[in-house]
């Protein structure tokens, strides 16, 4: 899932011409995807999916709107959510079900201030069992040094057209940073919600934002991502079980555009 929206304020602040960007490359083989196995496909039931990233052996970071039923506004049943780490052509490096789900308490969906809401489009999944594999290491998150205009970033995602194989866009650029949201010239499509936006920090890639939506600028596609400013609060909510939901009640079916 990925929400197509028009954010006039952010788009008005962006440069007239976006810098050249790399083309997303499908990682068809295990060798091509080496180092990115912590990124996985989130199976949400009913044929819907998002992207998520393992940030601890038992924690997956994604977008809040992937974990909220649009019809009811409630957190989806964890029993219907599965994380398929390194999913490629019908096989996963590791497969885990969700035990708990937490979304940013300030997230209220596509209502009111779109930019303000998008800055809270963050969710965490607590897995039923940790993933502890030498070949599958969690990705680190850097919430302290957010990228700004002109900074290069990259994205690893599953999306429409490559739902069975991850794609890496190794180089795109931040156009605007505004109120906890990045506007980027990275390519995004349905299913890319929750994808980790990466930047090099200390010689290694770290997650600096989470893909939230796509938009258009002068007829060209752009994307928007939420900065993980209050990841500690989200972890605390998940640990406290505040967003835990009973399983077995049936999964939510998403009908996002």
Automatic annotation (TrEMBL):
<dbReference type="Pfam" id="PF00089">
    <property type="entry name" value="Trypsin"/>
</dbReference>
<dbReference type="InterPro" id="IPR018114">
    <property type="entry name" value="TRYPSIN_HIS"/>
</dbReference>
<dbReference type="InterPro" id="IPR050966">
    <property type="entry name" value="Glutamyl_endopeptidase"/>
</dbReference>
<keyword id="KW-0732">Signal</keyword>
<dbReference type="GO" id="GO:0006508">
    <property type="term" value="P:proteolysis"/>
</dbReference>
<dbReference type="InterPro" id="IPR009003">
    <property type="entry name" value="Peptidase_S1_PA"/>
</dbReference>
<dbReference type="GO" id="GO:0004252">
    <property type="term" value="F:serine-type endopeptidase activity"/>
</dbReference>
<dbReference type="InterPro" id="IPR001254">
    <property type="entry name" value="Trypsin_dom"/>
</dbReference>
<feature type="signal peptide">
    <location>
        <begin position="1"/>
        <end position="20"/>
    </location>
</feature>
<feature type="domain" description="Peptidase S1">
    <location>
        <begin position="35"/>
        <end position="213"/>
    </location>
</feature>
<dbReference type="InterPro" id="IPR043504">
    <property type="entry name" value="Peptidase_S1_PA_chymotrypsin"/>
</dbReference>
<protein>
    <recommendedName>
        <fullName>Peptidase S1 domain-containing protein</fullName>
    </recommendedName>
</protein>
């Amino acid at each position: 899932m990925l929400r197509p929206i028009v954010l006039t304020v952010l788009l008005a602040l962006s440069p007239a011409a976006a810098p050249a960007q790399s083309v997303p490359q499908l990682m068809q083989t295990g060798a091509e995807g080496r180092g990115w196995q912590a990124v996985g496909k989130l199976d949400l039931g009913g044929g819907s999916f998002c992207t998520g990233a393992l940030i601890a052996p038992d924690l997956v970071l994604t977008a809040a709107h992937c974990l909220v039923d649009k019809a009811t506004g409630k957190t989806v049943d964890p029993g219907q959510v599965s994380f398929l780490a390194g999913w490629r052509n019908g096989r996963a490096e590791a497969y885990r079900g969700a035990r708990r789900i937490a979304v940013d308490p300030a997230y209220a969906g596509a209502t009111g201030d779109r930019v303000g809401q998008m800055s809270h489009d963050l969710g965490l999944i607590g897995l039923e069992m940790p993933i502890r594999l030498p070949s599958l290491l969690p990705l680190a998150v850097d919430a302290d040094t957010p990228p700004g205009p002109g900074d290069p970033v990259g994205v690893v995602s599953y999306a429409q057209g490559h739902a069975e194989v991850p794609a890496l866009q190794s180089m795109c650029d931040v156009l605007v940073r505004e109120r906890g949201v990045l506007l980027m010239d990275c390519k995004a499509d349905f299913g890319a919600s929750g994808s980790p936006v990466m930047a090099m920090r200390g010689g290694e890639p770290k997650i600096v934002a989470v893909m939230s939506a796509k938009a258009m600028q002068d007829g060209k596609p752009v994307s928007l991502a939420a900065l993980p400013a209050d990841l500690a609060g989200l972890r605390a909510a998940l640990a406290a079980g505040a967003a835990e939901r009973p399983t077995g009640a049936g999964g939510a079916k998403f009908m996002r555009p």
